[in-house]
Amino acid sequence: MISRRHLVTTGLAAAAMSTFAWPALAQDAKFRRVRSQYIAALGPVDATEGDNAHTWGHWPEDPGPIGVRLRDFDKLAANGGIGPKGWQFNEDDWWLDENGLLMMAPNFPMPSGRFLVTNAIKNVALLTVAAPDADGRQSWQLSNGRTLDDVTHKKCRSARYRPASEGADCSPANAQQSAFPLQPDQDPPAVADCDRLVYSVPIIFAVEDTA
What we know:
By secondary structure, the chain is mainly beta. Helix content is 9%, strand content 31%. Strands 1, 2, 3, 4, 5, 6, 7, 8, 9, 10 and 11 form an eleven-stranded antiparallel beta sheet that branches. The chain is globular and about 50 Å long.
């Protein structure tokens, strides 16, 4: 199985995306290609729109190459939770990807704007994320009837773990290492004493230039 990081960093995704027809809604706007960025998107996989983009996270760069293997969690803990390039592990709010990598948390909330997103195989859509309303909520919409599943590479699943109750021992040390790497469409496993949120991870390859 090819992970999203291998797919992107080897240039396969870039080569594939150059052959895609851009969504009609994007053809009259100015978009600039960007190094692959990633979205942590909550919502039903068959959703084409919603009003919860304020619950989404955004990785401006791939967190995978600076992730830490589950089996090396003890080394991360011994280093004060400081990961490669200085990211800080949070024992009360930690992230795990489909390859069993502990990751830097994304930025919250998702920035507003228009983005071209893909599953790095065949699907492309225009994602529109609105600015926060008076209550801080952000609506979002994918073009061409695309769903979150359509623009998520099948192995791209990230999970966020937080203590299920005050004082609960929600630790990566309790995670099932043998479950990784995940199979396509398989969610990261539950971890004892943790609440888990599973996010789809669409790939951004172009951003609307509003300057």
